[in-house]
Sequence to fold (174 residues):
Amino acid sequence: MNQEDAIRDDQPGQEERPYSPLDERVIPYWRLSGAVGWIIPMLLLFGLAIGVGGAVFGHLRLSLFLWAAWGVGVIFWTWWYPPRAYAAWGYRRDGKVLELRSGVWFRVVRLLPLSRLQHVDLQRGPLERWFGLASLVLYTAGTQEAAIGIPGLPDAVAQSLRDELVACGGDDGV
Fold:
């Protein structure tokens, strides 16, 4: 029996609520936003490969090869990482706490006591709107990690969750 099972066994009568996943549309959204985010750095690196590698050091082929290898790595990462991040993300809420989990390499579990909730923002950038997604940003009392985000929610779910969190916030909360 591992430590997690022991914790669950110590609390009889409490059933484990499953994590709610993000919307699957977040995978292509993350892929597209990652690709858009890499365009300018790749163009700058191309200019450096031509200018510095070719003109200054006289190794144009080598610098273009390194640039292309870096580009293949960026394409692989942009394609490979989002499904894994999607699988790692989840959230669940009970009467007093919102629990968030994330992290592909390093697992992160955050517990947000709803009594500490100050306000909730609903964010929808242009790409998120195009995919029908929204992000919730939860602000708590405190300075470190005072803003916690839940990305990739369907627009209607994000609005509903925002309204639920506002309704159940603490006396000093939202």
The beta strands are 90-93, 97-102, 108-113, 117-123, 133-140, 147-154. Confidence is low (pLDDT under 50) at residues 1-13. The longest helix spans residues 26-56. Helices lie at 3-9, 26-56, 60-88, 126-131, 155-168.
